[in-house]
Structure formats: structure tokens, C-alpha cells
Amino acid sequence: MMKAQVVGSAPVEVPARIEEEFTSLAHWIVTVYNNEFNTYDQVIGILMLATQCDYDEAAIETWEVDHLGKSVVHVADEAECHQIAQIIATIGIQVAVSKE
After folding, report:
1. Pairing between strand 95-99 and 70-76?
2. What is the pLDDT of residues 2-21, one digit of tens each?
3. pLDDT of 34-60, one tens digit each?
């Protein structure tokens, strides 16, 4: 069954199988929580290593962890999120993987 979706002003037919594949791709997130023993440099370094992000992104996420208590540091499929969480946890940071 195909659903009509509006793109701009014209309806577009999306094949049901494509819509099902898209909606079945559950997004997972990696959340890092604040602690009192890891330094900014340690957290920035592990985030850059684990998520392959640049320094600026890791610094922003680290600031969020410190000031807000937690930060979502990655969005991906479940397997990738668990791999990233394992790397981050190696320096003693509390980390969680959950559905978005």
C-alpha cells in the first residue's frame, strides 16, 4: 500500500516497502553522564576517539555534560552505539545506550 505524502505542493507516492524500511531504522543514542573525576581533556579526548568527532564538537558535548549533567554524544544504529559506549566507558565515564 502506498501513502501520498506532500512535498512542496505536490503529493508524492512513497512505496510501502520503502516507508517500512525507513521507519524500522530505529535511531539509538549514546548519553554520557557527569562525574567528579574525569577532566575536560580526558572527556574531550575519549569522545573524539570514540565518535570520530572534531575537537569543537567534543568540547561542546563535554561542556553540556559538566553543566547540564549529561549529553547525547552520538546517534546511530544500536550496534554502533554499543561499540561507542564501550570505548567511552573505558575511562570510567557512566554512559547509556537507548532508543531515541
Report:
1. unpaired
2. 444 445 566 666 566 655 55
3. 999 999 999 999 999 999 999 999 999
CA-based R_g, the chain, Å: 18
Residues 30, 87 contacting (CB under 8 angstroms): no
Q: How does DSSP classify residue 20?
A: H
Residue type, 76: A
Q: What is the pTM of this model?
A: 0.75
- Taking the C-alpha atoms of residue 50 and residue 44, their distance in angstroms, rounded to an integer, is 10
* Gap between the Cα atoms of 36 and 48, Å rounded: 20
